[in-house]
Amino acid sequence: MPIGVRQRRRRRRLSRWVFALTLFVIVAVPLAIAAIMGMVYWQARTDEARPVDAIVILGAAQYNGRPSPVLEARLDHALDLWNRGLATRIVVTGGKQAGDAYTEAETEATYLIERGVPEDAILYENTAHDTWDSMQGVAAVLKEAGLSRVLIVSDGFHLLRAELMARHLGLTPYSSPATESPIAAWSGTEFSYVIRETGGIIVFLPKMLF
Questions:
Q1: What single-letter DSSP state applies at residue 170?
Q2: Whole domain around residue 134: which residue ranges?
Q3: Does residue 2 form part of some domain?
Q4: Which of 165, 151, 177 is nearest to 201 (CA)?
Q5: Which stretch of DSSP H or E encloses residue 114?
Q6: What span, in angstroms and rounded, lies between the C-alpha atoms of 39 and 161?
Q7: In a domain, 126, yes or no
Q8: pTM of the prediction?
Q9: 61-84: average pLDDT
C-alpha cells in the first residue's frame, strides 16, 4: 500500500478518535455536573437523624457573639436533636474573622449553654475558616475522644460535601438539615448555593481519589 494512502487512513482514524473524545467530553461533563447537583438537592432534603456519638454544627457568621440568622437556625435545629436524646456530645466549629472578639465556635457554645446544654458536653473546633478545615479539626477532636458516629447539622445544600469530607476522614457521618434557615430548600435562594456546592465537590474529589 502506498505510503500516502496509509498516512491518510491514519489521519482519518486519528480524526475519528478526536471526534469521539470531544463528543464524550461534551456529553459526559455536563451529565456529571448535573448528577452532582441532583445529589446535592437530594441530600438537602434528606434527614438522616438517628442516635450518634456527637452532633456536629457547622459554623456560619456571627456578630460579636450573636449568631447570624443562618447560624441560629443551625443551632436551634441541633438543640432539637440534642433534646431528642440523639447524642451526648455536641461539636461546635468555626474560627473568627479579623477584628472579631469571638470565634463562631465560642458563639455557638454560649448559645447552647444558655439553653441548657451542659458545658462539659461540648467539644470545640474553633480555628477553621472553611468546611474542609472544620471537618479535619472535628475528626481530630472526635478521634481524641474515641468517637466516630456523627450527625452533621448545616443548611441542606452544604450537607453532601460535609458528609463526603467526614467519611474521607474516617468518620461515620449522617446529616440533618436546618430547615428553618433563611437559605433552606424552600427559601427560593438555594440554587446559587447548590451551584457553589457542586463546584466545591468537584474541587474536593481529587482529595478523595489521591
A1: T
A2: 44-209
A3: no
A4: 165
A5: helix 104-114
A6: 10
A7: yes
A8: 0.85
A9: 95
Q: Output Rg (C-alpha) for the chain, integer angstroms.
A: 22
Q: What is the dihedral of CA 69, 75, 81, 83, to 10 degrees?
A: -110
CATH of the domain at 171: 3.40.50.620
Query: Does residue 11 fall inside a structural domain?
Result: no
Number of domains, the chain: 1
Residues 60, 77: Cα–Cα separation, whole Å: 14
Residue 123 binned pLDDT confidence (cut-offs 50, 70, 90): very high
For residue 67, is it within any domain? yes
Cα within 13 Å of Cα(6), Cβ side: 3
Residues 6+ apart with CB under 8 A from 14: none
Tell me what pLDDT residue 204 has: 85
- In the chain, the N- to C-terminal Cα span, in Å, equals 47
Closest by CA to 161, choosing from 138, 131, 136, is: 131
pLDDT tens per residue, range 141-198: 999 999 999 999 999 999 999 999 999 999 999 999 999 988 765 556 677 888 888 8
Q: Is the pLDDT of residue 5 over 60?
A: no
